[in-house]
Amino acid sequence: MSSSATGIPGDPESVLDLRPVDESLASCVVDEERVLVRAEGDLRMRRRLAALGLRRGAPVTLMMRTAGGGAVVSVAGSRIALDRSMLRSLHISTGEVA
């Protein structure tokens, strides 16, 4: 049997589907506001991102993509340019912003 969830009620594998789903900011749609749920990387990088307003619970909007794979995001009334690797290290919720 495969390791994917079966969708059968009561099956322990189907419990995996109940966890909150997140995706990287790199896969976000332009002009769609989402909520930042976590940032990967070392402590120094996470502190720098937090100083820029990119912290857990912050509403983030992908404003535009750049030619090199980066993007400009809007957070806390500011626009910040991020490279491709930084976009991949930031994770957003896939649900709607309340």
Determine the number of helices (DSSP H or I, runs of at least 4 residues). Answer: 2
User: What is the terminal separation in angstroms?
Assistant: 39 Å
- The rough form would be described as globular
SS class: alpha+beta
Could you tell me the strand content as a percent range?
25-35%
> H/E series, N to C?
EEHEEEHE
- Biggest sheet details: 6 strands, antiparallel
Number of strands: 6
Uncertain residue segments: none
Overall pLDDT = 81
C-alpha Rg (nearest Å) = 16 Å
Q: Strand order across the biggest sheet?
A: 1-6-2-3-4-5
The helicity comes to: 10-25%
Describe the structure.
With about 100 residues, this protein is an alpha+beta fold. Helix content is about 15%, strand content about 30%. The chain contains 2 helices and 6 strands; from the N terminus they run ββαβββαβ. The protein has a 6-stranded antiparallel beta sheet with strand order 1-6-2-3-4-5. A hairpin with a 5-residue loop joins β3 and β4. The protein is globular and about 30 Å long.
